[in-house]
Here is the input.
Amino acid sequence: MKAGFNPDQILFTGTGKTQSELKLAAEVGVHAIVVEDLRELQVLAGLPWRTAVALRVNLGLETKTHPYLTTSAVGTKFGLDLDGVTAALEQVRRAPRLSLIGLHTHLGSQLSQPTAYLSAVENLAKLAGELATLGFPLRFLDVGGGFALGFPFARLAEGLRGKVPVGLEIYVEPGRYVVAEAGCLITRVLSVKEVHGQRFAIVDAGMNDFLRPALYGAHHPLLAFPCREGEAMECTVASPVCESSDVFGTYLLPPPEAGDILVFMNTGAYGFSMASTYNSRPRPAEVLVWHDRPFLMRERETLEDLVRGEVVPDCLN
Ligand SMILES: Cc1ncc(COP(=O)(O)O)c(C=O)c1O
Here is the structure.
């Protein structure tokens, strides 16, 4: 809403919503609250507003991505399975102010092929048909986000032709696809060394600045400055943080030298927003490049910022 969207343009989705979040979403009248468990329905049923809800369905579908990035598969915490959907329908039926208008699923992240989306639509459409016969006519099916950069949307649209029941809209929720290319992470090489025959470039950025590589092995294109002459060799780019998982990946590079600049591309999503001050490392500055000119957008944090807000309780004084 702060970014200028009307409540009726907003779907409120998330695994584990607090009572006050649910109340706010119902009060402002979002387009739909995407319910993930029966407690959320119970809370909403007790509120004084008419509220449109959708059910997030865990389809038990495997997707071709990192296990940490799959979100509609058996073993994942998201949404309701079919028994959960049946129980949710009973609750909606008993709640006069709730109307069920959609089904939702979010398959995962970094999906590069339409296959899983087509299976999801097929599954959700079948379920929507069953719900209609039970007296719950729906308005939309939402297949979530997760589209990798370069995703073939035209092939997805082609695959969907004829598969979407009349009267149902298809929603998508692209996240990373929209903003990833808007950002990059600039870091400096502190030192280059070999350990047991493996070449490492230690840089001044770490998992606290950019978590994706350490968290789920994300591999981002890398540019090196200056462009050095010489044969490209494997070099593992690693951070100063004391975690063995904190490496940015192994790249083929002409051997870098201390002082060189490395640029990780496509960090505009899950980049700064996942940054932390772990290891007592202040978060970096953010700079907008506008028509080749740099503008500071967020100041670099200082050590002073790390302790701002800390309180020493009286009992320790
Ligand atoms: C429900 C839901 N929809 C969409 C997205 C966006 O995913 P992505 O950025 O991979 O497109 C997320 C990401 O967590 C999500 O949880």
In short: Residues 7-174 form a domain with the TIM Barrel fold (CATH 3.20.20.10). Helices lie at 19-28, 38-45, 82-94, 115-133, 153-160, 176-179, 212-216, 303-307.
